[in-house]
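User: Hey, quick favor. My workstation is busy. Could you predict this chain's structure for me?
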Amino acid sequence: MKSVNDEKITIYNGEDIKYFVFPDKFDHTQSGVPGNPCYNFRFRIFVFFSYIVLTQLFQLFCTPTEKIIGVWDIGHQITTPINNMYKEHRWFSIVIQLLSAIILDVAYLYISLYWVLYQRNFRLFAALIIFYVVRAIHLNLVKLEFPQNYYWEDPNIPSLVVKYGFFSDFFYSGHVGYLIICGLEMKRIGKKYMSAFFFMCSLYQAFVVITFAIHYTIDVTTGCIFAHYFYNQVCYWEVKIDFLLKMLANLFQRTSKQTTAKYEVQGDKQIGVTTV
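Assistant: No problem, here it is.
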C-alpha cells in the first residue's frame, strides 16, 4: 500500500497529470514552527515598536540628501586604480576580459547541454527566459548614461555570449545573474561542486563588470536578487509550468496516438523513462 510520500514522489516524477489536486488550505497567520517567539504577545509588541524606531532612524541617517549631478557610484570610485591599469596595460585587460568570456561561454555550453542530455523539466529555461525578458524591458524603460570610466574594448577574439564595445545594457547585470541561475540550478539537482564553481565565477564577473565600469554597482546587486527571485518563483510554479508546456505541445501533435510515459522511481529520484 502506497504511503502519502510515495504518492507525492510518483506525481513529482512525472505521472500523467490531468488535473491539479491542491492541498488543504494552510492558515498563513500561523507558523510552521510551533513555539517560536512570534507566539509570544510581548515579543510581537517588542518587534512592533522596534520596527517604528528603526524606520525613523533609517529615514534620518540612511537617506542621502546631497544634490548629485550624474551618477555617483562608490564601486567605480574605489576601483578607479584598477580601471586605469586596464587602460595603461592593454594586455592585462585582454587577459581579464578573455577569462570572463571563457567562463560565460563554458557555463553557457555546459548548462545547456546538461539540460538537453539529462533534464526532463523546463525549470532552467523558464527561469532564464523570465530573467532576460524582464531585463530587456528594464533596459528600454530607463536608459542610463555611460559611466565616466567605461572601458570595454574588443580583444578581437570572438565569444558566444559576450559582446564588446559601447552598449548601455546596465540595469541589471546579465553577466552575474546568469551565473547565479546556473549555480542555483546545479544546487537544485545536487551538484554541489558545480554550484560552488558557478557562484565563485559570479563573484569574478561582478569584479570584472565593476572594475571595467561596464555596469553600475547597483546593477550587480540587483542582478543577483532578480536571478534568485525568478529562479525561486519558477521552482514554486515548476509543475504548473511543465503542465502548461505539455498542454501547448498537445495542440501541435500531428497524430491522435496517445503516448504513455512510465517512470521508474528509486527513493526520491527518477532513474529511467520509457515511452509506450
